Amino acid sequence: MYALEVKNVSFSYDNKDNTLENVNLTLNKGEIVCLLGVSGGGKTTLFNVIAGLLKPQSGSVFLENEDITGQTGKISYMLQKDMLLPYRTVEDNVALPLIIKGTKKREARRIVGEYFAQFGLDGTQKKYPAELSGGMRQRAALLRTYMFGGSAALLDEPFSALDTITKSEMHRWYLDVMDKIKLSTLFITHDIDEAVMLSDRIYLLSGKPGTLSDEIIIKEPKPRRADFNLTEEFLNYKRYIVSKIQ
């Protein structure tokens, strides 16, 4: 059973020319899968279909074999910006999914508090988002996404706003924390290096309408070597992807 499965999905705006055409993808439990392609290729549209924000003209979306096509609130979705509420403390931002579901604030704070150390956020509970660095804000946003629950999460370019050094540090942290919490993750990026560094598999979305043109399995075991991005294996993956992306 897949954590997430997209079957034969096609989508068009206002029933005009398709933006997506017959898209099929799977996400296994505990897996990190990347959706990679050029801007305007339909990646965010596909995420909105998976999240139930858009209903496809044809095809279905399944979360652990449950048909969730066109249903919101079934899968957690982290947008490119961290979207932390500036007037709430970090712990109350992170606890928000639990509070929305009816958990009392004190209990929600207790539950999320157990994860702050694991996510490298210990000591930030009573701070406000403006007091955190960009990397720490993204950690808080990812923890909030995790607290939404469910077996899978969508991350839309989660590290794109970070500088190169911070992004590299976040990549190492992300792989470490994902190995611990086993959250099945589908993420969007335009960064080929990031896709190869983080993913178990990469889907290439290309063309108009957007279709999945290739699937690349990254065989480098996890946890990944710190210098993996300097190896010939890494460069071979990168060369292949560059040759295929249009």
Topology readout:
Layout: E1 4-12, E2 18-27, E3 32-36, H1 43-50, E4 58-63, E5 66-67, E6 76-78, H2 90-100, H3 105-113, H4 134-147, E7 152-156, H5 164-181, E8 184-189, H6 192-198, E9 201-206, E10 211-217, H7 232-244
Helix pairs in contact: 2-3, 2-4, 6-7
Protein traits:
single chain; 246 residues; alpha/beta; six-stranded mixed β-sheet; four-stranded antiparallel β-sheet; 7 helices; 33% helix
Structure description:
- It contains seven helices and ten strands.
- It is an alpha/beta fold and about 250 residues long.
- The relative contact order is 0.18.
Quick one: how many beta strands?
10
From the structure provided, what is the oligomeric state, counting identical versus distinct chains?
single chain
Radius of gyration over alpha carbons?
A: 18 Å
Report low-confidence residues grouped into runs of 5 or more: none
Mean pLDDT: 90
Summarize the structure.
The protein has helices at residues 43-50, 90-100, 105-113, 134-147, 164-181, 192-198, 232-244, and strands spanning 4-12, 18-27, 32-36, 58-63, 66-67, 76-78, 152-156, 184-189, 201-206, 211-217. By secondary structure, the chain is of the alpha/beta class. The model has no long low-confidence stretch (mean pLDDT 90).
